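Format notes (please read before filing issues)

Several people have asked whether sequences and structure tokens are stored in separate files. They are not. Every record keeps both together, in the order shown below: the sequence lines, then the token lines. Line labels are part of the format and must not be stripped during preprocessing.
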Amino acid sequence: MKRLKCIMLIDDNKVDNFFHERIIKKNDAADTIVVKESGEEALTYLNTNTNLKPDVILLDINMPGMSGWDFIEEYIEQNHHLPTCNCSIVLLISEHQSLENDILKLAEEKNVFIALKNKPVTHEVLNDIVTSKLK
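Then the structure lines:
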């Protein structure tokens, strides 16, 4: 598998973060993994860390406080979606959620690349994410 420079995980569930971080490490998919447990923490990181921006953000959509939707809106408002950032957002959802139409509409309106994947991230899903990002 090819490697990205940085993958950011945003999920309030520590177990999911642990599992996803382990999958990324096991597959040697990124040089750096940044783990944040809220959208607020992630935005603080993105606004203060100018040296290392993520290539991909794996974002849980259902979080208390700032939801994944709220994070995306704030992320776009702060212009992190500009082509110079070159970051893709992958929304992680439970299988029973049906958000595809909402996501496609948001992506079109805001000119941000958003993909939709089911939890948990598997080797195959991670490989698809990394491969599509490196094209």
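For reference, the curators noted about this record: The chain is about 40% helix and 20% strand. Residues 14-26 form the longest helix (13 residues).
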